């Protein structure tokens, strides 16, 4: 499978702190997909997004875009990369200059990348992009950022990305700062861009519900480590890793007889104080074994279309080292394995 973007054994450290540890993934160049990267705060989601965007370089490993190391691209290659890989950030207000009208943030990429040879064509492109994300140009253009709602500002940033016809959009918590009535609208717009324009989406989130609704695949991170990854129906529908199970059990259900919060797993003082070079979830895990404290579990394949980094599945095959990157695949494909 040819890859649009790959992370090969990527680790990012800041002094003694490891923000991301040995993460490998790959998105297909020929089958545009929607992939969620999920986990609680501090799990490494934003660090992963910033490395995929080329904003920071890994301490170890590589980020490759169409086979080229992002950290070693030439000026021309980097310019093409910047056009084809677009971000949508959590707080769009920080992106806007309050002294410029909304038009400025849309006109700038058109001029920088010479997308139109006349003002008339540029205006038509901008209006088309706004309509694609559900905004009326006549009600949006000419206004200042503070005159628009948070949802409108977020959709303008999606429209800006659409203008460049990117291959990949990396959306870092794109709906966490808008009200519930707009979340479904913005996420549906991202899904439409994926289906109609063939744009792959990496959706960074802590919300498993929306990930399940719109994504094909998911990777769950815990303290910088991959806990589980694979087809979203398998990982969220029947989670294998104890951390994934904890996250799924915390999704509120429309049943007033059940408390919101699922199974809260406390961390005992003894567990918290114990040296732990092994599984990072061990202090919170209800299934912890002695081997978990001293050894990092490999990426097991408990069933097709899924990886689980947990010794509970030590009798299952271990994912082949060169195939871990291919866990995100279209349906009806399986993962090549080797004996454990």
Automatic annotation (TrEMBL):
InterPro entries: AAA+_ATPase (IPR003593), ABC_transporter-like_ATP-bd (IPR003439), ABC_transporter-like_CS (IPR017871), Oligopep_ABC_C (IPR013563), P-loop_NTPase (IPR027417). This is ABC transporter. GO terms for molecular function: ATP binding; ATP hydrolysis activity. It is found in: Cell inner membrane. SUPFAM superfamilies: P-loop containing nucleoside triphosphate hydrolases (SSF52540). NCBIfam families: oligo_HPY. It is a peripheral membrane protein. PANTHER family: ABC-TYPE DIPEPTIDE/OLIGOPEPTIDE TRANSPORT SYSTEM, ATPASE COMPONENT, ABC-TYPE DIPEPTIDE_OLIGOPEPTIDE TRANSPORT SYSTEM, ATPASE COMPONENT. Residues 5-248 form the ABC transporter domain. One of its GO terms (biological process) is peptide transport. Belongs to the ABC transporter superfamily. It comes from Devosia insulae DS-56. Keywords: ATP-binding, Nucleotide-binding, Transport. CDD domains: ABC_NikE_OppD_transporters. GO terms for cellular component: plasma membrane. Pfam families: ABC_tran, oligo_HPY.
